[in-house]
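Practice problem: predict the structure.
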Amino acid sequence: MPDQELQPAAPKPRRRQARGERRAAQLLDAAATVFTQAGYAGASTNAIAREAGVSPGTLYQFFPNKEAIAVELGGRLLEQWRTSYGEALSAENIRLPLSEMVDAVVDPLLEFNVQNPAFHVLMHGPDTPGQVTDAFEAFHGAVLQRIEELLALYLPDTPRSEITIVANTVLGLFKAGLDLLAVHQDEQEAYRVELKRVLFRYLDPVIGDCVLPDQA
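Answer:
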């Protein structure tokens, strides 16, 4: 009999957990909006709670402070960015002719940043918590290494030091393009086209005539 009384209650913690996850996601979405509008330094937990349509007390049930929100949001966005980056630099894309490859690689990465402006805010904000910026910098290093690996496939006889310079330049151009898109909200398409043109013109004399080996 005691066992029968306990069995119906078992699913309740799972339902509460699911509701809690939805509420936490709601708060993170609200934080993304507030960070985008006010920057990290200008945001407050009260503003985030107001954007989410909850009381500050409800927010504090999930996050002790603004920094904890930024860390959680940064982790979520970085995981999504890893997925976008992995798809953009797929084997299928890097085997395309250069003009098509630039489109296939750059477009989804730019789209991610356009759809998630809080990512740019947290990446470049001077007051962003160190745990967030450290994670972004670590991933930046991984992206740079991946670009170097791809360039080395195209340029097997080129010294590594020269490949590193090209990789840093490519990544620097892309980041500069993101800054321009963030500033020129009403002209993003024009700047998207211009960024891809710049990348193509820079890479064309470097790898435009190169052919990847079959095992790449």
